[in-house]
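Q: Got a minute? One more chain.
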Amino acid sequence: MFKSVNRRDGGQKEQEEAVQLRREIGLLSATSLIIGTVVGSGIFIAPKGVLMNSGSVGLSLLVWALCGVLSLFGALCFAELGTSFTKSGGQYTYLLEIFGPLPAFVRLWVDFMFIRPSVTGYVSLAFGSYMVEPFFTPCAAPAALVKLVSILGVTLIVTINCWSVTVASRTQIVLTFVKLFALVMIIIPGVIALSRGQTENFQNGFEVESLTLDRLPLAFYNGLYAYGGWFYLNCVTEEVINPNRNIPLAIALSMVMVTILYVLTNVAYYTMMTPAELLMSDAVAVTFANRAIQTFAPVVPLLVALSCLGALNGGIFGSPRMLFVGGRDNLWPRIFSMIHIRRRTPLPAVMLQYPLTVVMILSGEIYQLVNFASFSRWLFIALATLGMLIHRKRFPLHPRPFKVPLVVAVTFTLVCFFIVILSLYSDPFNTGCSLALTLTGIPVYYITIYRPSCIPNKCKHLFNYCSRQLQILLEVAQQEVKTY
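A: Always. Here it is, folded:
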C-alpha cells in the first residue's frame, strides 16, 4: 500500500515538475483577460474615428452599439470553437482543423509579420501619448519622447510575460479593475449632466446626409478596434480551468459588460462635448475630464495609460500562444514551441515578436496602424467562423459543449466579409498593403513547408545552428506533457 502511494506521489511530483503550460486561468482570470484586453486605448481613441466616418452623433452611437452586438456574436462563435477544439492557438487551430495547413500557416505569417506588431504598436503609442502629453500641455509632446516611453511600456509587459504566467494573470486582473474605475469616472458625470437636461448635443443627432457609404466601414473598423481582443482567450484554451464552462461564461459576461460601458461612455462624451470639440481632440478622455471632472483631471491620463498597459498585457499574453502551437505542429519554427525550463512560460514566442513591434512603434501612426492591421485580422476571423459553419455541416455529431444559434454565426460571418470587402474601396492603400502582405505567406508556405527541398542545405544548417544556440541562451525546451 505504501509503495503504491509513493509511486503515485512521485508521479504527481514528476507531472508538476515537467516542462509544460499549466491550467492556471480560472473564471475571474479569463473574464479579466477579455475585459482587460478589450478595454484598452480604443474607447479613449476610437470615438474620434467613429464620429469622423459616421458623420453624426446618433449614427456614431448606433455604430458603437452595433459593434458591441457584432463583437458579442463573434465572441459566442469563438466560444463554440473553443469548446469544440481543445487545443490552444485560436484562429490558427480552427483554420488548421477545418481548412488545412495553408490558411493556418498564412494566419501565423501575418500575425507574426504585421498584425501583432501593428496592434501592439498602436496600443503602445496610445500609452506613450497619455503618459507624456500631460507634461507638455498645451504644447504638443515631442514625438521621439512619446515613442521612447511607448517602447519602455511594451518592454515592461514583455518582461512580465516572460517571467511568470501567474504574475501576468494577476497583473491583468489588477489593470482590469483600474480601467473599469476609469470608465466609471467618465460615465457618472455624464449621466448626471444628462439627467439635468444637458441634451443639446443630441439634437438632430441623425444627420444622414453627412453619411457616405465608402466611409462607413472605417467607422466600424474604429469601433471594432475598440472591441478587439475578445478572441484572445481562445489562444490559451489549454491553460483555462474547466474550459467547457469558463470559456463561454467569461465571454458572455465580459462582452455584455463592455458593450454597456462603451455606449454609456460615448453618451457621456457627447453630453459634455460638442461633435466639433471631440473631432479636434486627440485625447478625448483628457478633454472630457478637463470639462467635467476638473478635480480628477490630472489622474485621467494615468488611468488611460494603465488601461493601455492592460490591453498590451492581454494581447502579449494570448497572441504568442498561436505561434507556440504552430511551432508544436511543425508549421512554424520549432524554437517558438519551447518553454522556459523554470519559468514555464513560452519565452521564445513572446520575445521574438518584440523586435518587429519596436519597428512599428518607431515608424507608425495610430490611425494608420488601425486600418493597416484590421483588414487581415477580420478576414481571418470571418474565415474561422465560416469554418465553424462548414465543420457543423461536415461533422454534425462532433461534441460541441456550447453551440451558438445558427442565425448568430451566419450574421456575424456575412457582416465580417462585407466590411472586409468594402474596406478595399474605403481605404485602398492600407488595406491593399495588408492584402499584399497576407498573400506573401502563400509562396513562403510552399517554399518552407510544402517543398522544403527548395531551401539550400547551407541555409537549413545555419538556421538549425542558430535555433540551437538560441535554445541554450534562453534555457528553453520542448513541452513534455500533452495538454490537449
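A: The chain has 21 helices and two strands.
Q: Perfect, thanks.
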